[in-house]
Design goal:
By secondary structure, the chain is an all-alpha fold. The protein is built from 23 helices and no strands. The chain has helices at residues 9-16, 21-31, 36-43, 49-55, 60-69, 73-78, 84-91, 96-103, 110-115, 129-132, 138-145, 150-156, 164-171, 176-185, 191-201, 205-211, 221-225, 231-236, 245-251, 257-264, 271-277, 284-288, 295-304. The protein is elongated and about 80 Å long.
């Protein structure tokens, strides 16, 4: 179904007539974008009505009936074929979710979009479908990235294809979720953005993604963070190529387990401490993965585990 637009007409027809009702429904939800008859059929099925109203080619009568009955209005508000006057009516609807849906329409000019009274949650991540579909499209990215609408910017920040000017622009928005998306998705995210994400979200998946980003800083981390009160920051000192074996050993005794484990896996850890770490439950896995572990020690681990030679 995801290749619907490039399927041959015969294959589309076969899917629309498939013996499995779920396949037929999924096929119809693609075809309804261009066919009012298919849209009308889907509207009669409670399982598909909302999605058909959101993406199908609507006749005005069906749209007006939804407005009169106040059914699935947020879905209708997204529909690309909705007449302009009905878009304007929904733009002032008393339901905030409906107004927000209207504000995300791709056919609105920026001034009209931002004139709508909508609210975006602080943690709304940005899942605007037409922007997600266009994450490799320069025109879509530009429209979304330069918009004042937070959800458009947050969705655009999920693109690894942002050109340098839009990347710089989004990096300056001071939007926490924009920064988080950039740190996960873009290969050229500025170091200062990565550090802000790490500082704010230390210990989370997003912080880990920022830390493992190829542009995450390394030099100077030992001098800056080895004695930091937060263990998440002390762990960063292990990343510094200038960190000494003595510092790595000290950090392998750190009060924070994540810091100890990072140090136990570092090849600069002195051999005597690496051998000790192999017998400490919360360090054994990291020590076992340490590339500096001598072959005889690897064999000893296997022997203790009863792995036959």
């Amino acid at each position: 179904m995801r290749a619907w637009e490039i399927l041959e007409p015969g294959k589309r027809s076969a899917l629309l007539a498939d013996p499995d009702p779920e396949v037929r429904r999924a096929a119809a939800l693609w075809e309804c974008r261009w066919d009012t008859r298919v849209t009308a059929e889907l509207l009669r099925d409670p399982k598909s009505a909302a999605e058909a109203l959101r993406r199908g080619l609507l006749v005005r009568a069906d749209a007006e009936r939804c407005l009169a009955e106040r059914t699935h209005l947020a879905a209708v508000a997204e529909n690309p074929s909705l007449p302009t006057d009905l878009v304007e009516r929904l733009a002032i609807d008393p339901d905030e979710a409906v107004r927000l849906a209207v504000s995300l329409r791709p056919d609105l000019g920026e001034r009209r979009r931002m004139a709508i009274d909508f609210t975006v949650g602080a943690f709304a991540r940005g899942d605007v479908e037409w922007v997600l579909d266009g994450l490799a499209d320069p025109d879509v990215l530009h429209l979304a990235a330069v918009s004042a609408h937070p959800l458009l910017r947050r969705t655009a920040a999920r693109s690894p294809h942002l050109p340098p000017d839009l990347l710089r622009r989004l990096a300056r928005t001071e939007d926490l979720l924009v920064e988080e998306h950039l740190s996960i998705h873009h290969p050229d995210t500025p170091e200062e953005v990565l550090m802000r994400v790490y500082a704010r979200l230390g210990g989370t998946f997003s912080a880990w993604m920022a830390e493992t980003h190829p542009r995450f800083p390394r030099e100077g981390l030992a001098a800056r963070y080895a004695d930091h009160p937060d263990g998440n920051y002390r762990r960063l000192a292990v990343r510094d190529p200038a960190a000494t074996p003595g510092l790595i050993e000290r950090l392998s005794h750190d009060s924070a387990v994540w810091t100890r484990q990072a140090a136990a896996g570092d090849p600069r850890l002195p051999l005597h401490r690496l051998r000790e770490a192999l017998h400490i439950p919360d360090l054994a896995s990291s020590a076992g993965a340490n590339p500096a572990l001598p072959e005889d020690e690897m064999a000893a681990v296997l022997n203790r585990a009863g792995v036959p030679a």
